[in-house]
């Protein structure tokens, strides 16, 4: 069988003018700020005018731990949005924006796949509406103002060795990870060691995605801890008076971006924080706006449910007051087989036993998500190689867990292939079964929060942390940060911190290597393992073959 | 008298939808890619469709050497565009985009002033349509690919000490001028010293502004010399295979931006290369597109006519095949007085003698511009403090030089204040008097080109350059770069290289400190004095007071 590629399908899309898509949601043309003919931002004024309207129902799409087989979480998110529209519900998809830099390393990310995609794909993988550039500018303005403050006399007594605020660039550039700045003599400042992270790792990104409006944004930007004095007292972004100008740089980026699916249904694509050192969800403002405009909002969280859904619930929903009505856990027969010990090369052959053996990974995610009081349905994202017996094995296993697994063919057939899932989601959401509560209360001590996540979600026996880390957590509690949620940064490939430990491991321990305060975003990051915040390019970066072809289309990006 | 500020006037503008502005020029809506309701890019397809159409008349607005009194070159450019429309000519204004970074240092630049402005002012001083961000990305992708090439084995044998390609950021950040990258061990590459320039200083900016289409853009990007081997042979951007991906990043930025004047006349605002190490003009593609769409195109060049007009003629017009029909030289009574020795604090008092004494600066610019075969008119940009006798003195002096000086009140009265100038420009342009030729032929040896500019335009006695500089120029001639024009980088405040030497000095010498090859842009930079390519922030940067006010307007930026 010869399949069309995602980009071929995307280019054949019959896009409607973005004003028509906005009209479906009742957004007046004057409040839709176009970027070309197929992208638009929704004005802050219009968003403010929605206050008091009832909210639609929020559906989370999450997944098993990712495997090299690919699960199709975004594809299912987009497909479910189309499916809900197909069965007569006004549904809006909310997903994250793509980072530009990594697209020039490995092949770029599409927004969904097959016949469940969001378009325009090229623009979404390039500059899109400039949000990430605005975040880069705001972040680096703060960096420049810190060094400028030191240069002109350092009235705040910033300890140059303790400037924690780095710079960012939306590029894979390992040479910038660890640098010395301000060389060259008196007129260039005081030399010190620092570095660049990739823009999606910026705390400004996390802040933009968690802020409810521009006032909240400015407050959070001001709250960022950028450095410490010799006495270890913190210096905030507002101390160097950067918060106002940063807000100005971000005022357009704070407006959600409206695009469309291949089936001309509305999708908000807005924000894209890292899913390790940040919470990995699209923006609160996009989700909340979508809830005012649609009956159903389908959104996703980064990585598998152990990281993505947990942070979605414990950080985003907790802080934004969101109450999910149902969750979809995406799994594939192939991924079950890999969890059951099959190598990627052998995925083509039927292997019901391996499927059964791998299912406990899915089972644990089901139980975990249910433990938040959110009803669950499993979407089996269909591949052509799946056999009936393999699919039946997954369905039977899921039924034993007290849930239902539904075979979905949206990749091949668009919304027509996902109607059953859409109906089930509506049943769950309208059943009133949801009774969402976060995993732990705000008041729980910070270390105990980490333990709670590790034990109840990862099924670990213990959390290991040096005394210095425990002391740091206590110091933050004393400084008034004890009520913050935890943002776990660990491998996405396993419930444990060992990426090779598939399935549903028990008896492992979770070592916390480092903790970081994101005072503006409003969480404490617990780092369990190596986290790379500035990727490098591979030996043969895809940039080498990316080019415009004779028709003016981008080649090599997908 | 209480005057409204520029930003107050700009905010009162009755802007028309950008589609209506495009319609005035016959641009179909589908070829106008909107960015909000008041900005748009013109599609490449539409631009290609214009080939073969006759060109309108090109009018250059230039000025005397700038003084702290302010001349109002952009204001006059915008005013003249409105004035030409007022008298029934279809006229288009073409000016440069503003750089974001410096706006957070000193108070930001407006686009014109008083009642001769281009709007939307806020957006034009912030992210606008993202062109500069795209240039930053393209530039830094090339940087990352160079270090990545070295990291993975350095097949091209790049000498790490001879990597000339730096990185850029659109920010005033002195800490980044001189840095060491790739610290931190094996996985971060080979440590080396380098730095960041501000984005407007990027050769990519100059290339974008000189390229006639996307194919030309890609060729020029490939031509960039990024490093040398130990044997001093050059490495080009195309050797690291960056030219295709850079072109993809720049494909939208290559489309000219359409906005409007306060009087709803069309203005292209596109590109903004430095006026010292680059040529300081808006993009060729915007100017050429405007010439196909309008009867008159009014554009400006950076700094005074000695630098700006010379480069406009010898680089932009020469390379793009443009033939200016007339030039306007902007002068003010106040600037004449400063050239005549009056301090800024004393400009309020009438001083006809000082005006007369300062006029030779203007006189030399008139003669210089005429020497390119371009007819000249002088615009006296009126200030309220100007007396009749002072204005009469300037007019009399200009008449002696065989030109006419016309008093213009566009700042206070918009197009109604500049009708006389508009009529005179039409007379000159339609007289057929123009017979444009560049100052020197392509074949002239490089050093002789520098001497020609210094002697004929600056009226210097000699050019001083070390043997190493002369040898470098000869080496470039041997390498096939001998036919390139020269891009002079010297102080804009004087005909000489001494910024304090006002008026029309003679007998001075021009020391060339350094020469640089911009092989992609297609010129050789002769640096005469200190050139800063990464500004710093002042002690109290305007960023400290920039913020959104309660109405959502930006405060402190203007």
From TrEMBL, chains A, B:
**Top-rank EC class of the record's enzyme:** ligase
Q: Record's InterPro entries?
A: Formate_THF_ligase, Formate_THF_ligase_CS, P-loop_NTPase
Q: PROSITE patterns from the entry?
A: FTHFS_1, FTHFS_2
Ribonucleoprotein keyword on record? no
Reaction(s) catalysed by this chain's protein: (6S)-5,6,7,8-tetrahydrofolate + formate + ATP = (6R)-10-formyltetrahydrofolate + ADP + phosphate
Query: Where, in this chain's numbering, is ATP bound?
Result: 67-74
Write the Enzyme Commission number(s) for this entry: 6.3.4.3
> Keywords, A to Z?
ATP-binding, Ligase, Nucleotide-binding, One-carbon metabolism
Task: Decide whether keyword Nucleotide-binding is in the record.
Answer: yes
Q: Which domain of life is it from?
A: Bacteria
As for family, the record states: Belongs to the formate--tetrahydrofolate ligase family.
Q: Which NCBIfam families match?
A: PRK13505.1
Question: What's this protein's name?
Answer: Formate--tetrahydrofolate ligase
User: Which organism encodes this protein?
Assistant: Albidovulum sediminis
Q: Which gene encodes it?
A: fhs
């Amino acid at each position: 069988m010869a399949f069309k590629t995602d980009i071929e399908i995307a280019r054949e899309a019959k896009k409607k003018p973005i004003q028509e898509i906005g009209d479906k949601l009742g957004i007046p043309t004057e409040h839709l700020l176009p970027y070309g003919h197929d992208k638009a931002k929704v004005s802050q004024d219009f968003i403010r005018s929605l206050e008091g309207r009832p909210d639609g129902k929020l559906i989370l799409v999450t997944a098993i731990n990712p495997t090299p087989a690919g699960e199709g979480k975004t594809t299912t998110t987009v497909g479910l949005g189309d499916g809900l529209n197909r069965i007569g519900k006004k549904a809006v998809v909310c997903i994250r924006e793509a980072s530009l830099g990594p697209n020039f390393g490995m092949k770029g990310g599409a927004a969904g796949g097959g016949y469940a995609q969001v378009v325009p794909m090229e623009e979404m993988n390039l500059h899109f509406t400039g949000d990430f550039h605005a975040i880069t500018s705001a972040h680096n303005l703060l960096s420049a103002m810190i060094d400028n403050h030191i240069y002109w006399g350092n009235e705040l007594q910033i300890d140059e060795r303790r400037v924690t605020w780095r710079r960012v660039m939306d590029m894979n550039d390992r040479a910038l990870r660890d640098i010395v700045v301000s060389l060259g003599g008196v007129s260039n400042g005081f030399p010190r060691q620092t570095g660049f992270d990739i823009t999606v790792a910026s705390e400004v990104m996390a802040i933009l995605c968690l802020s409810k409006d521009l006032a909240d944004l400015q407050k959070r930007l001001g709250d960022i801890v950028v450095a410490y004095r010799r006495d270890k007292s913190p210096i905030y972004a507002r101390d160097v008076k950067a918060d106002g100008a940063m807000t100005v740089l971000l005022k357009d980026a704070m407006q959600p971006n409206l695009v469309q699916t291949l089936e001309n249904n509305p999708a908000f694509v807005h924000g894209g924080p890292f899913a390790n050192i940040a919470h990995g969800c699209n923006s609160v403002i996009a989700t909340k706006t979508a809830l005012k405009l649609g009956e159903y909002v389908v959104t996703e969280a980064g990585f598998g449910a152990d990281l993505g859904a947990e942070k979605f619930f414990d950080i985003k929903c907790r802080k934004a007051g969101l109450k999910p009505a149902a969750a979809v856990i995406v799994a594939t027969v192939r991924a079950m087989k890999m969890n059951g010990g099959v190598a990627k090369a052998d995925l083509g052959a039927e292997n019901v036993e391996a499927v059964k053996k791998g299912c406990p990974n899915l089972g644990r995610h089901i139980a975990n998500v249910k433990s938040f009081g959110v009803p669950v349905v499993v979407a089996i994202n269909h591949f052509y190689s799946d056999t009936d017996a393999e699919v039946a094995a997954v369905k039977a296993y899921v039924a034993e867990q007290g849930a239902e697994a539904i075979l979905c063919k949206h990749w091949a057939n668009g919304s027509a292939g996902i109607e059953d899932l859409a109906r089930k989601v509506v049943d769950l959401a309208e059943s009133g079964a949801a009774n969402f509560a976060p995993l732990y209360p705000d008041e729980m001590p910070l270390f105990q929060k980490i333990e709670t996540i590790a034990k109840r979600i990862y099924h670990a026996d213990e959390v290991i942390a040096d005394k210095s880390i425990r002391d740091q957590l206590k110091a933050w509690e004393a400084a008034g940060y004890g009520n913050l949620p935890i943002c776990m940064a660990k491998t996405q490939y396993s419930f444990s911190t060992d990426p090779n430990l598939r399935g549903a491991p028990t008896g492992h321990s979770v070592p916390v290597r480092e903790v970081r305060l994101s005072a503006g975003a409003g969480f404490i990051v617990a780092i369990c393992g190596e986290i790379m915040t500035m990727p490098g390019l591979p030996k043969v970066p895809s940039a080498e073959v990316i080019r415009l072809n004779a028709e003016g289309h981008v080649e090599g990006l997908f």
